[in-house]
Amino acid sequence: MSVFQKTGPLSVLHAFIDASRWRASLEKDAPARTDMISLYVLETGGCEGCAMEVESLCGSAFALERYGFTRVTDPADADWLLVTGAMSRACVQMLDRVWQAMPPGKSLVAVGACAVDGGLFGAGYATLGGLKALTQVRKTIPGCPPSPQDILLGLQRLAGG
């Protein structure tokens, strides 16, 4: 007989003890990376749906570090800038300050439809739309909002080439 009860009231406890049981299945799809890419996340406006999905990557369900990515709180330590949300006029200077603080070799990644082209929040009195209105965007992760799995797969795709 198993030490852990897998059904009934103790099943939730068992799930927390055995994290691999509920971890995203991406672990089988890609080998672990040895070189870490530091990510700085900036929410620039909108509904914050994409920002919440990016935040969920930092939990134990996705093991972001296993795939070669780590979150940083200082843009001076970041390799990639992940921007979520439509570009609000109030955040333009903040985006510029963060970008200037990042070291050479940096990359800009637009996460979600709003960050790419404004999504539901087109250009108006409070927003400029997406990053395409301000700069050339080469790295994007589409969706409204993209799921944590889609974001992680997109980051892996972008890191691969």
From TrEMBL:
Domain NADH:ubiquinone oxidoreductase-like 20kDa subunit, residue spans: 47-157
Stated name of the protein: NADH-ubiquinone oxidoreductase 20 kDa subunit
InterPro entries in the cross-refs: Complex_I_20kDa-like, NADH_UbQ_OxRdtase-like_20kDa
Species for this entry: Gluconobacter frateurii NRIC 0228
Keywords recorded for this protein, A-Z: 4Fe-4S, Cell membrane, Iron, Iron-sulfur, Membrane, Metal-binding
Source domain of life: Bacteria
Cofactor(s) named in the record: [4Fe-4S] cluster
Family: Belongs to the complex I 20 kDa subunit family.
SUPFAM superfamilies referenced in this protein's UniProt entry, alphabetically: HydA/Nqo6-like (SSF56770)
